[in-house]
Design a protein that fits this description.
Chain A: Its main location: membrane. The complex is a heterodimer of chains A (about 300) and B (about 525). In chain A, about 80% of the residues lie in helices and about 0% in strands. Chain A has about 300 residues and is mainly α. In chain B, helix 8 runs antiparallel to helix 10. In chain B, strands 2, 9, 10, 11, 12, 13, 14, 15, 16, 17 and 18 form an 11-stranded mixed sheet that branches. A 4-stranded antiparallel sheet of chain B has the order 5-6-8-7, covered by helices on one side. Chain B is globular and about 70 Å long. The chains are: A mainly alpha (about 300), B alpha+beta (about 525). At the A-B interface, helix 2, helix 3, helix 6, helix 7 and helix 12 of A face helix 1, helix 6 and helix 12 of B.
């Protein structure tokens, strides 16, 4: 197990190198640079060029990349060209908001999808199954910005239950979490349903029923536990997606997370901020994926056995 | 089979109900808000809620939603509309601009005198304190302008300063390298705000947040919000509001909803479509300001074939600006006939506009050597200006100009236009009130002269005007510049954009500024 974890951590170095290289070059090769945002409006061309030299932006990309990576190796992700703030500190300041939203969304998604998926599988072909699948389809089809605005209209404007945005207190988390969670629940519901259907047909469940085990226990304990692996895989993948991809929801709800930070940095071509954030994001995602893999072992003795043999 | 049909019907019913619920969510807002009365204010006025009485209760905390990010509180690092509004809360300049008269009025300096065309002496008030309790002294002014030499936004602003000296504790003398009539006008911009020397020595990292303004910084979360407490030792009139928060809300429609449900008291920079919701709500007021940002269609005048003025004139004859205003801004906006700020010194619209005349346009095209038309690429930043480009595409097709639209983000547009690889572009330029601000539009050295227009006579006139203390002569110089620009038309001015603010109807104390630097420092909301 330990060898496996160490190997994954070793591979993470190459992931970070690859990600930083691609991001740094893509952003630098895109038209426009950060000077368009930091040079004053009344600056002359000479003043802009002087600023370019001062910031070292006149040097070849490869040299700038190597300089950046030298800093990275020493634990320095640089400073934002726009705010002058330390990239690592800025990212860490925004990360809690993103993590809160990500876990709350996954929680909402699990809350919706597991009962709905189990119900659909138990009642395959019935109206309950069809309603679940229509609900899943609706969740999948609704764009986040649309659902977010509808939720704001209903719960903030009409009912006044929740604030329209910001990250002040638990109440402000609910609407963004529902917005993201609904979309995630759609796919998860289908996954739970299909993996439950596979398990439900297995002989050991028939045996359990024949032995007089209550249906509730058969489904919730014996069947669901074995249907969990694909569910964990999807939930883990979704978590990584939310960690970097809730940009639209963060924008609508003025949620001060990492997604909005990166988006704003892209618009202003803040290369150090973008590269630093993406590196940190890829490390975060790699760690989450590793945790997900380790969770497999926790729920499936077969995988545990593989780890014990030093396999995988 | 019958079970199947029943199930199918059930699905249809459920689907219909879901759609109806969602639709009712959309529709009800319209129905509810349509009963309200439109209330609007115009340029340059101070908004006043119902007259306060002795028993009037004021909201303790006022919240302003802004659509643009605030990334720093250092007045010398950034100078743009979003930041300047915040800087005006915490800091004061030496002089101010009277929005209604356009005259320079005292602020931290109670009087001033031009000792010579290059020497300005200012007398400071002696009752001003910084947020750290220190008294404002002439040495703070000297320190501020010395520090300005290294600020990203301020360095160019003080490049013509030869010397700044403290004559005594409350007198400052600024010496320039050449006459500059617009100095006082420029000094109303927050980038010239006065900083506390002691605060910056004590805390070089955050000391710049200490100013002499009505509002003292409480908390700053970059790209999220800035909150302030009232500074009770402020030298001027105090607002009854105790706390103020400026929140970054990137989505304009959500900003309006938060205004409607009372979370916010004021929303800045609304789109014309969101402004409609504010106008229809009886609990809100819509403030419309004639902005000074001129939206325009520019050519790369240094690159063939658009270096040919006949071609540019042909295009000018084929454009219907009213249609562009209608399509892009829902009809809001003031038609522009000269590329000059409409509240800027020297503004002259007496040359009129190019008449819409397709025959004349075709004749000019033929005279320029393109009787069968030609291709033209318009570079445009993503957003509402794309609509303008599409309208131009349709209008110019009538004279045989085949337009392709190159949509990019604003950072890319800046880079493309600076490199001069573009043929034409749609963009906007916000003008200040100072006449010399036109240098940004026409000087070949300027980064905002995106047309790469160069005319020696225009530069000569700009230089003459800024050194000229005789107002009539300056006006004549600026008129001649506009005459030349009208003929050579490197830029076709389209319209001045209207600014929209949504407010709680009980909000007052705001000075709306047509140069976009609206002053919120006296803001208050009367409690119902």
């Amino acid at each position: 197990m330990l060898r496996y974890i160490l190997r994954r951590i070793f591979l993470m170095i190459f992931v970070v190198l690859g990600v930083s290289f691609v991001v740094f070059f893509v952003i630098n090769l895109a038209p426009g640079d950060v000077l368009s945002k930091i040079a004053p409006e009344d600056a002359t061309l000479e003043e802009v060029e002087a600023l370019r030299v001062e910031l070292g932006l006149d040097r070849p990309i490869m040299f700038r990349y190597l300089d950046y990576m030298k800093g990275f190796v020493k634990g320095d992700l640089g400073k934002s060209y726009i705010t002058g703030d330390d990239v690592f500190k800025t990212y860490m300041a925004k990360l809690p908001a993103t993590l809160k939203l990500a876990f709350a969304s996954i929680f909402v998604s699990i809350l919706i999808s597991i009962p709905l998926g189990i119900m659909a599988a138990k009642n395959r072909g019935s109206w309950k199954d069809n309603v679940s699948m229509v609900a899943a389809l609706l969740g999948l089809s609704m764009p986040n910005f649309w659902l977010g605005l509808l939720l704001i209209l209903l719960f903030s404007l009409k009912l006044g239950w929740f604030p329209t945005g910001g990250a002040i207190g638990f109440k402000s988390l609910i609407l963004p979490a529902i917005t993201v969670g609904t979309g995630l629940a759609a796919l998860l519901t289908r996954t739970v349903r299909s993996s439950m259907l596979e398990v439900i047909r297995q002989d050991y469940l028939r045996t359990a029923r024949a032995k007089g085990v209550k249906e509730k226990i058969v489904i919730n304990k014996h069947a669901f536990k074995n249907a969990l692996i694909p569910t964990i895989t999807i939930a883990g993948t979704q978590l990584t997606r939310v960690l970097g991809g809730a940009v639209i929801t963060e924008t609508i709800f003025a949620w001060p997370g990492v997604g909005r930070l990166i988006l704003d940095a892209v618009y202003s071509r803040d290369v150090t901020m973008i590269t630093g954030c993406i590196i940190l994001k890829s490390i975060t995602i790699s760690i989450i994926l590793l945790i997900v893999d380790l969770l497999y072992a926790a729920v499936d003795p077969r995988i545990r056995a593989q780890f014990a043999k030093g396999g995988k | 089979m019958s079970n199947f049909i029943k199930r199918k019907r059930l699905f249809l019913i459920i689907c219909s109900m879901t759609i109806m619920v969602l639709m009712s969510g959309c529709g009800s807002k319209e129905a509810e808000t349509s009963q309200g009365d439109a209330q609007s204010s115009s340029t340059g006025t101070t908004s006043e809620a119902a007259a306060p009485t002795e028993n009037t209760k004021y909201k303790e905390e006022v919240v302003i939603n802004t659509g643009a990010q605030v990334t720093t509180l250092d007045v010398q690092e950034v100078s743009n509309v979003a930041h300047n509004r915040v800087f005006k809360l915490t800091h004061d300049t030496l002089v101010d601009l009277d929005i209604d008269t356009g005259k320079i009025v005292p602020k931290l300096a109670k009087e001033w005198e031009w000792l010579s065309p290059t020497e300005l002496q200012l007398k400071l008030r002696n009752d001003v304190f910084f947020h750290n309790g220190e008294e404002l002294k002439a040495s703070d002014v000297v320190f501020t302008f010395k520090r300005a030499e290294n600020g990203k936004a301020s360095t160019g602003r003080v490049s013509n300063f030869v010397d700044v000296v403290a004559v005594d504790d409350f007198t400052v003398k600024i010496t320039l390298n050449k006459p500059f009539v617009d100095l006082l006008d420029n000094m109303t911009i927050p980038v010239y705000s006065i900083l506390s020397e002691k605060a910056l020595i004590d805390d070089p990292n955050m000391g710049y947040t200490v100013g002499t303004g009505v509002w003292k910084l409480n908390e700053f979360v970059s790209n999220d919000y800035v909150s302030f407490d009232r500074f009770d030792k402020y030298w001027g009139e105090l607002t009854p509001t105790q706390k103020l928060k400026v929140k970054y809300v990137p989505e304009s429609s959500v900003s309006v909803i938060s205004l409607e449900n009372g979370e916010a008291d004021l929303c800045t920079d609304l789109t014309s479509s969101d402004a409609v919701f504010v106008e229809k709500n009886k609990d809100l007021s819509l403030v419309e300001i004639d902005g000074t940002t001129c939206q325009f269609f520019g050519f790369n005048a240094s690159k063939a074939p658009w270096d040919n003025k006949l071609l540019r004139q042909a295009v000018a004859h084929a454009i219907v600006k009213e249609d562009i205003i209608t399509a892009t801004e829902n009809g809001y906006g003031k038609l522009a006939t000269t590329f000059w700020g409409n509240s800027q010194f020297g503004y002259y619209d007496g040359f009129g506009d190019y008449e819409y005349d397709l025959d004349e346009a075709k004749r000019l095209l033929a005279e320029a050597g393109y009787p069968n038309g030609l291709d033209l690429e318009i570079t445009v930043p993503t957003g509402y200006r794309v609509t303008t480009a599409e309208l131009l595409q349709a209008q110019l097709s009538q004279i045989g100009i085949n337009v392709t639209i190159n949509e990019v983000d604003s950072a890319a547009l800046t880079s493309i236009t600076n490199d001069g690889t573009h043929e034409s572009f749609v963009y906007g330029l916000g003008f200040n009130t100072a006449g010399d601000d036109i240098r940004r539009a026409y000087s070949p050295k300027s980064t905002t002269n995106r047309s790469h227009y160069a005319n020696d006579r225009v530069i000569e006139l700009i230089d003459l005007a800024v050194a000229e203390f005789d107002t009539d002569k300056r006006l004549a110089d600026y008129k001649e510049i506009q005459e030349i620009a009208h003929d050579e038309i490197p830029v076709i001015p389209l319209y001045y954009q209207t600014l929209f603010f949504g407010t709680n109807k009980n909000l007052g104390g705001v000075t709306w500024n047509s140069t976009s630097n609206t002053d919120f420092s006296g803001i208050y909301v009367i409690e119902k």
